[in-house]
Write a structure and sequence with these properties.
By secondary structure, this protein is mostly helical. 62% of the residues lie in helices and 4% in strands. Strands 1-2 form a two-stranded antiparallel ribbon. Keywords: Nucleus, rRNA processing.
């Protein structure tokens, strides 16, 4: 007599239990003949690198959106192989495929399965190396899909789609960091994000896109810090984002803050971007002032942002606030941010950090030598044109005995 399993007794790993259940189910079920035939034909065309017709792409998208897990899994594996081996993918065809990927993620159940699929989809942004155009097209197709479908996500599935967006933002920033913040990678990738955020100001789409813009704004600084801290050793500091790159990444949020009619979105930009950057940067500088007494884990928080050019940022905000076309309620919020950024700029003057200066380095735990960071790419942008591009070594900033002390007005941000 075989062993019987007690009702309610589950395995220690829910994800493995769910996978075993799907495997047992797959042994008893077969794919529908029509889908099996379409996928087999498509797989042969993908292997031979042949052009795929629109009708074939539509069938592929339907396979990705199938309610059957095995059909979705096989189509997704073929899709990954196709992207990794392609040098160019039509944007229209990729958008159709992303429609299927959207519903593939929609059908995923159980939190472990959802997280695994979200990581699998987002990792393609940072890992596609055959052609940068494919990674860019894939990233933009994802943003277009989220803009189009965000208003149709119900409250029961909102959490998992927010997690998907967070992972894709992380993957986008990770790709920039891997390529040392090169303008050829940073500019086209972040232009897609800029276009997405500015859709929140569209009268016809404002209600649907505002929620997506709120979420992206909330996770931006945290994910940028996570990217810079990845690969960090025990006695190492995170990588530093060059000042010009950081200014370019923050620019879309500045435009939203200055032009949006949604006070919730404006408030979120102030709290989640400007206030958080100022708080982390100020706290990091205070820890570095302690010298040998500063611990790596204390200094590392906010270290990626120490090259922020607060003075230039304040000037740009003041120019926008002085523009007669700026709404009064936006102008009041901009002046609040200017006061905050000027406090950070005042603090940076005491450190000798001028425009475009490199990040300070701090003594190691044993006081032997300062920690140096890897080379970073520094460039200036105006109207999306690259004017200056070179590599710069991190230098040690020597502080005089009369170094500037933290201001009392900065205490509430640090």
């Amino acid at each position: 007599m075989g062993k019987t399993r007690k009702r309610g007794a589950g395995s220690e790993d829910p994800q493995q239990e769910y996978q075993d259940k799907l495997n047992r189910k797959g042994k008893q079920q077969k794919l529908r003949p029509g889908i099996e035939k379409d996928l087999s034909k498509l797989q042969g065309k993908l292997k031979n690198q042949e052009d795929i017709s629109d009708a074939r792409i539509g069938k592929f998208a339907r396979a990705l959106a199938s309610t059957d897990w095995h059909t979705r899994e096989r189509a997704l594996s073929m899709f990954e192989t196709f992207l990794r081996s392609s040098e160019n993918v039509p944007s229209d065809g990729l958008r159709k495929m992303w429609k299927g990927l959207y519903y593939s993620f929609w059908h995923s159940d159980k939190v472990p399965v959802q997280q695994e699929l979200a990581k699998r989809l987002s990792s393609l942004v940072s890992s596609l190396e055959v052609s940068p155009l494919v990674a860019l097209a894939y990233w933009r197709a994802f943003l277009d899909t989220m803009v189009r479908e965000w208003s149709f996500v119900d409250r029961h599935r909102l959490d998992k789609f927010m997690s998907l967006v967070r992972m894709f933002v992380h993957a986008c920033l990770s790709r920039m960091s891997t390529h040392e913040w090169h303008p050829d990678v940073v500019v086209p990738m972040w232009d897609g994000m800029r276009e997405t955020l500015l859709l929140a100001n569209d009268v016809g789409k404002g209600t649907a896109i505002t929620g997506l813009a709120l979420h992206i704004t909330s996770v931006f600084v945290d994910e940028l810090e996570q990217v810079c801290s990845s690969g960090q050793g025990q006695d190492e500091l995170p990588d530093v984002v060059p000042s010009d790159v950081l200014s370019f990444l923050v620019e879309p949020f500045m435009v939203v803050m200055c032009t949006s009619n949604s006070m919730a979105l404006v408030k979120r930009v102030i709290e989640a971007v400007y206030a958080k950057l100022a708080k982390k940067c100020t706290a990091c500088m205070r820890q570095i002032e302690q010298g040998e007494d500063a611990k790596v884990e204390d200094v590392s928080k906010g270290y990626p942002f120490v090259q922020i050019d607060a003075l230039l940022m304040a000037k740009e905000l003041f120019d926008v606030a002085a523009d007669p076309g700026t709404n009064q309620h936006n102008r009041e919020k901009i002046y609040d941010v200017i006061a905050l950024v000027e406090q950070l700029a005042e603090y940076q003057r005491g450190w000798g950090l001028a425009e475009g200066s490199s990040a300070p380095s701090t003594p190691s735990a044993d006081g032997s030598k300062p920690r140096k960071k890897k080379k970073g790419v520094v460039f200036k942008l105006q109207n999306n044109e690259v004017f200056r591009f070179h590599k710069r070594d991190a230098v040690t900033v020597q502080k005089s005995p009369s170094a500037h002390k933290p201001m009392k007005s900065c205490a509430r941000w640090a």
